[in-house]
Amino acid sequence: MGEHDMAELFETYRPHLRAVAHRMLGVAGEADDAVQETWLRLSRSDVGEVANLGGWLTTVVPRVSLDMLRARAARREEAEPWPYDQVWGDRTADDAGDPEQEAVLADAVGRALLVVLDTLTPAERIAFVLHDVFAVPFDQIGPIVGRSPVAAKKLASRARHRLRGRTGTVGARAARHRRVVDAFLTASREGDLEALMAVLAPGVVRRADAAAVPAGTPTVVRGARAVARETVVLGRRARFAEPALVNGAVGIVVAPRGRLLLALRVKVEGERIAEIDVIADPARLRTLDLALIDATPCG
User: Fold this and answer.
1) pTM beyond 0.70, yes or no
2) Which of 21, 68, 111, 163 could potentially form a cystine with 31 if both were Cys, beta carbons 3.0 to 4.6 Å apart?
3) CA–CA dist 135, 186 (Å, integer)
4) What is the average pLDDT score of the chain?
């Protein structure tokens, strides 16, 4: 097969490979890089005897993604708290996309799912995504992650357990808390001061890491009107937010392009929010137990 023919054939597989890489990596740009590296490996390989090129490519792109996830994990260990202007500047690395791209990402994968996947080890993430999202059998997953099929199955099982997390708020109480958090997010996105006042307790307290608020802004704000006004000012960021379980209770993750920047621990009393703890420090974020409220991800 000539290089031109191979390139044309590769293009027919590109959408599928990009979908696989996107769910593994959670970032569109990194997914494109993984697909490009897969093409380079194909162009340097002798695949004349490969009976199923699509299957071969579907094993290569996860290997590339696994290397990228391991490199990302190593970088994260050295991360320092981000100052506010880096987190919420007009055009940060994680907020350079337009709202349409953000909507596509949320609809296709879901920010909360991407955030929770990011808490898995690289091997757990690869095993889970390949098996549970793309139905790749474990005898094919094992060699990709350097494990036996049985060990690969255990990796996916551990990932599934992590997605569920530990739930301290259950049943009707959890459903009520979810409704309150949803109402808060809707009002935040719409900049609706009165609706925010209705969902916040009169004596609500908002605490925040210094990196989560502009310089000079108090890290502690008290009272429904003060918290609501601040939320309206910063409300455009709510389009990056989704409900999630934070340490077993219904809370919020804020994740431009699926990358966690903030987590909000929310205390609900009755039908209103009584406390909000905004966490931006990477060391604090790493200690959180994050999970999906609905732990059945879609493909």
Assistant:
1) yes
2) 21
3) 35
4) 84
